[in-house]
Write a structure and sequence with these properties.
- The complex is a heterotrimer.
- Chain A is mostly helical.
- Helices cover about 30% and strands about 5% of the residues of chain A.
- Chain A has three helices and two strands, in the order αααββ.
- The radius of gyration of chain A is 22 Å and the shape is flat.
- Helix content of chain B is about 40%, strand content about 15%.
- Chain B has a single domain, classed as Amidase signature (AS) domain (Amidase signature (AS) enzymes, Alpha-Beta Complex).
- In chain B, strands 1-3-2-4-6-5-10-11-9-7-8 form an eleven-stranded mixed β-sheet, with helices on both faces.
- Chain B is an alpha/beta fold.
- The longest helix of chain B is centred in the C-terminal third of the chain and has 24 residues.
- Chain C folds into three domains: about 290 residues, no CATH class; about 90 residues, no CATH class; about 60 residues, Arc Repressor Mutant, subunit A (Orthogonal Bundle), CATH 1.10.10.410.
- In chain C, α5 packs across α6.
- The radius of gyration of chain C is 30 Å and the shape is elongated.
- Chains A and C meet through α1, α3 and β2 of A and α1, β8, β9 and β16 of C.
């Protein structure tokens, strides 16, 4: 397996603004961990991806009836908002 | 006799006979917390005021003979990654230090129906990621047996709370051993039920396919009582299952397997000795014991440290400073989110998010995450095969006794290795329990782990109770009462 | 070098369920922000998704109606990307195991049928809505406000294969898909409300090339008109670039409704890597034969079959197509009137032309209570039996649309019944000829068009009650004599 990775790119995908020091130390940690998990590469595996169940007990999904259940009030939903205005959550500009 | 040392059934019997009031028990438990918190820091918050009121209501129910629940008036500590309405749920993270939950987890609803008291919220490794409770943004928790040592993790606060008798029992969550390992380190029973038997709704997700809520208690029977109260299919958790328990023997007609791979290098002699001790007891009682081999268990850490981080990388994406929790400003939404996550998450959480992000990223999925899924499936199949031959599997819970604070913080991989024995049960969805069996030469608790097939939780508890009775472990750390 | 465009379209249809895709919050149509929310659809810590049966039925229904193969063992994937209106920062979607695969949709352009291959039909959940304060681009926006009422509303995404070659085809495809969703009763199909949203992937390559050119994605087309214009513009832009030897960049472009151009969207740094993986909160979804049979019972007469049925009444393909895309009451009215009159063309013309035209003019949205549908047949019959003229019929229709009366009453009151008695008409003609001797002379000397003038005079004097056809015939005869 290949262990080359671009820590900046991964951090971008994960939306975490890493300092230079963090980039270095986390790169180092990740290399060590990835080296360990490489043990899997030697493994001869039989299970086909398509046969794998998501649920460890192979439970099948149950679908729920389309009936409204009351949940949070507006105030409850917005009570933890760092910033809000006129009933909306407010964030710095997100336009593309 | 100190009432906080009693089991739930013993306490309930005293309540019913009106020899003890819930309010008296609560006072005692709160006093214990007051005595130990400064040294142990098991709790992040204690709910004193509300509990005094609730204990008084329990008093009335018992005095009028109207209580119908074994858990009525029993003070239980709750790991701070389980939501209780109108209380903070911090997950020991700076990210959620100001977050108040507007809803109850299903397990909390169920315990409220039983009129349980919640002593408070307990400390944990941030977002349940760790094995020592050293990754908390709000300070370390210490082992009540010796404060130089860690209580284990991630449910270290829950274990320390029960250990110091600041609560009668506690709820933890277990993704790779986070209930069983701290229970073992603190001389307690820790039970991770079959995946899906306890609803995860309201448990802040770390790795959804592995997470399971369970009890940390002084006795197996206490775990049984709590398990029966919190389990059951929940229509708010699509992964929850109907708790249809299998009927397998717990008496000496049962066959026990000793897992060879968990009795080899990397496991301390002390830990092996505990397993051997229990095996001898079982043999003397007429149980058939045999060594079995599940080679893929050796790859548990590798499989786990791909699957758990991958799932967590998405599960923790919601912490972005938009709707709740910490916000660190930025010129754009994207900068704000990046700054918030940089500031809000600790090093271990970042490590796992980045590892998971990498394992799922374009070009690496197949060789990492995809491969781990396949290996996991193979492990599930191997366990299923093994359980055709044996009813229970026995191993150490942890490779060693508790380690000292700071001992493993600089080496993440070494820390991960301490979960070697507990991870397989999470990967395969099995019920698994840690039972305290003895003390190390450093006078720290050691335990053994018993696993059985999915949905055989009740027989597993029955079997564990037999071991508990035979071993006669004196499970009380000194100096806190 | 001759160039050909290739277009693929991705359409999102908002399903008209009562509740959201993964929680039971009501789907609401309101400007009041953040009033239909729960822990799941705002991504609170610990919340879990539970799928909506009706939504899965609707998606399966659409997949079946387009002839897709149904994936019996399906699953849900997490599509990971950070955006403030996406609460979990991943969208639950479907990746390699969508509900439906490899379908086809028949479309109609003028008098020709065409077939658009569908690659896949799958589930998605909608995001919240962002509104930006400040004007225009990010540089001038000061903040973004978020409303999560729409967050988690179920969507079905339909992806075509790259088989569309013109804007005309694209528009016909969307029109057909829209009508299908209305007839299946899975959506209101209102474009202006965003019930149907579409993006187009456009590339241009040499006519004889077997490979497609570089693909450009066009977003923000909010109407059929903008779809048509955007595609035409983009084909032109790419064709011109290729002819000038300029390389096409793979990118997402934004249709500017006012300027009528596409322009590069400000792309977020870093390439999109959605890190799809199976959602561990949602077990595999098995669509049993029983489930599919249940869905099939919901299948209405599809637009394609409606067209075939309409054509058997004698309508052309394009007429049938127009009717099949009309409102339900129009379709029903046609069938009824045709049944009564057996005259497809008259029925079609009166309903789609005169009736709808007059209603539009008079701003009438629904037929008035007193308006008996049989009146239309009556009118058609009156014309056919020469009892009234076409002009009179229009007057009658106007009258019965606004007043509680019947066609024959109107005809009577307004004296609109035609004179079909040739003797009476001849008498009147004699009179007219007497009164207009000079005109008659001029006709005889070759000014044929003045015949019309005389007919007009005749109509005037008879208050329009004379059958104009007969009148002309008799007049010509008279003039010849």
């Amino acid at each position: 397996m290949s262990n080359e990775f671009n820590i900046k790119n991964i951090a971008k995908l994960a939306s975490i603004n890493l300092s230079k020091e963090e980039q270095d130390s986390l790169s180092n940690d990740l290399s060590i961990i990835l080296e360990h998990v490489n043990a899997l590469s030697d493994l001869k595996l039989h299970a086909q991806q398509q046969e794998i169940f998501i649920h460890p007990l192979e439970k099948e999904l149950e679908l729920q009836e389309d009936e409204v259940k009351k949940s949070l009030t507006h105030d409850e939903a917005i009570s933890n908002a760092p910033e809000s205005k006129d009933g909306k959550f407010v964030v710095p500009p997100s336009m593309e | 006799m100190d009432v906080s040392n009693l089991s739930i059934r013993e306490i309930n019997s005293l309540f019913t006979k009106k020899e003890l009031k819930p309010s008296e028990l609560y006072s005692k438990v709160f006093e214990n917390a007051a005595n130990s918190e400064a040294a142990l820091h098991a709790h992040l918050t204690l709910f004193e005021e509300e509990n005094i009121k609730k204990a008084a209501e329990s008093d009335k129910r018992f005095s009028s003979g109207k209580s119908a629940s074994l858990l009525d008036g029993i003070p239980i500590a709750i790991k701070d990654n389980i939501n209780i309405k109108n209380y903070k749920t911090t997950c020991s993270s700076k990210m959620l230090s100001n977050y108040t939950s507007p809803y109850d987890a299903t397990v909390i609803e169920k315990l409220k129906e039983q009129n349980t008291l919640f002593t408070g919220k307990t400390n944990l490794d941030e977002f349940a990621m760790g094995s020592s409770t050293e990754n908390s943004a709000f300070g370390l928790t210490k082992n009540p047996w010796n404060t130089d040592y860690v209580p284990g993790g991630s449910s270290g606060g829950s274990a320390a709370s029960v250990g110091a008798r600041s609560s009668i029992a506690a709820l933890g969550s277990d993704t790779g051993g986070s209930i069983r390992q701290p229970a073992s380190f603190c001389g307690l029973v820790g039970f991770k039920p079959t995946y899906g038997t306890v609803s995860r709704f309201g448990l802040v997700a770390f790795a959804s396919s592995l997470d399971q809520i369970g009890p940390i208690t002084k006795t197996v029977d206490d775990s049984r009582i709590i398990f029966s109260s919190i389990s059951g299919e929940d229509n708010r958790d699509a992964t929850s299952v109907i708790n249809n328990q299998l009927d397998i023997p717990s008496d000496n007609t049962a066959t026990i397997g000793v897992i060879k791979e968990l009795m080899e290098d990397g496991i301390s002699d002390e830990a092996k000795n505990e397993v051997n001790k229990v095996v001898e007891i079982l043999k003397s009682k007429g149980y058939k014991v045999k060594e079995i081999s599940i080679p893929i268990i050796k790859l548990s850490i590798s499989i786990y440290y791909l699957i758990a981080p991958a799932e967590c990388s998405a599960n923790l994406a919601r912490f972005d400073g938009v709707r709740y929790g910490l916000r660190v400003d930025g010129k754009t939404s994207y900068e704000m989110m990046e700054n918030t996550r940089a500031e809000g998450f600790g090093a271990e959480v970042k490590r796992r998010i980045l590892l998971g992000t990498y394992a799922l990223s374009a070009g690496y999925y197949d060789e990492y995450y995809g491969k781990a899924l396949q290996a996991r499936k193979e492990m599930i199949d191997e366990f299923a095969k093994t359980f055709k031959d044996v009813d229970y599997l026995i191993s150490p819970t942890t490779p060693t006794q508790a380690f000292k604070s700071g001992e493993k913080t600089s080496n993440p991989l070494e820390m991960y290795m301490s979960d070697l024995c507990t991870i397989p049960a999470n990967l395969a969805g099995l019920p698994a329990i840690s039972i305290p069996t003895g003390l190390s030469k450093d006078k720290l608790p050691l335990g053994v782990q018993i696993m059985s097939k999915p949905l055989s939780d009740n027989p597993l508890l029955d079997f564990s109770e037999i071991i508990e009775k035979e071993v006669q472990f004196d499970g009380q750390p000194k100096g806190w009462l | 070098m001759s160039l050909k465009p290739t277009i693929g379209i991705e359409t999102h249809i908002e399903l008209n369920t009562n509740t959201k895709m993964f929680c039971r919050c009501a789907v609401v149509d309101t400007d009041e922000p953040n009033i239909s929310l729960c822990p799941t659809c705002i991504g609170l810590p610990g919340a879990l998704p539970v799928p909506n049966k009706k939504a899965i039925q609707f998606i399966t229904l659409l997949a079946l109606s387009t002839g897709c193969e149904i994936t019996s063992k399906g699953m849900f994937h997490r599509k990971n990307y950070f955006y403030p209106d996406l609460p979990k920062n991943y969208q639950i979607s479907q990746f390699d195991l969508p509900v439906g695969l490899n379908g086809e949709l028949e479309i109609v352009i003028d008098e020709n049928k065409d077939y658009i291959q569908i690659e896949r039909v799958h589930m998605e959940e909608d995001t919240g809505k962002s509104s930006h304060s400040g004007s225009g681009r990010i540089e001038s926006a000061t903040s973004t406000a978020l409303d999560f009422n729409r967050s988690g509303v179920p969507l079905v995404e339909i992806v075509t294969k790259p088989v569309i070659s013109s804007s005309k085809q694209a528009v016909a495809y969307i029109e057909e898909l829209r009508q299908l969703s209305i007839d299946l009763n899975i959506s209101e199909g209102r474009l202006e409300k965003g019930n149907l949203r579409f993006d187009a992937n456009i590339s241009v390559a040499p006519e004889d090339s077997t490979e497609l050119g570089t693909k450009v994605e066009i977003k923000n087309m909010n109407s059929l008109r903008s779809l048509e214009r955007a595609i035409d513009y983009e084909i032109q832009r790419q064709t011109k670039a290729l002819e000038e030897g300029v390389e096409i960049v793979q990118e997402t472009r934004h249709w500017d409704e006012n300027k009528e151009i596409t322009s590069t969207m400000r792309s977020k740094e870093g390439s999109a890597d959605y890190r799809y993986f199976s959602d561990p909160d949602l077990p595999n979804m098995f669509l049993s034969e029983e489930f599919i049979k249940g869905v099939e019972t919901l299948m209405p007469l599809l637009p394609k079959a409606q067209r075939e049925e309409l054509m058997t009444t004698g309508l052309s393909l394009s007429q049938s197509n127009i009717l099949s895309k009309s409102e339900e009451w129009i379709k029903k009215l046609y069938v009824k009137i045709f049944d009564q009159t057996k005259d497809s063309v008259a029925s079609y013309n009166w309903i789609t032309g005169e009736l709808q035209g007059q209603m539009r003019k008079a701003n009438i949205e629904v037929l008035p209570e007193w308006f008996n549908e049989d009146y239309l047949s009556e009118i058609i019959e009156l014309i056919k039996s020469d009892k009234i003229s076409f002009t009179s019929a229009k007057i009658i229709l106007t009258e019965i649309l606004t007043t509680d009366t019947t066609p024959s009453k109107v005809a009577e009151q307004k004296n609109l019944f035609q004179e079909n008695d040739s003797e009476k008409i001849s008498e009147m003609i004699s009179q007219i000829i007497k009164e207009n001797k000079d005109i008659v002379e001029r006709i005889k000397s070759g000014e044929d068009k003045l015949v019309g003038f005389l007919v007009g005079q005749l109509m005037k004097q008879s208050n329009g009650s004379v059958n104009p056809g007969m009148a002309k015939e008799l007049l010509l005869k008279e003039l010849e004599d």
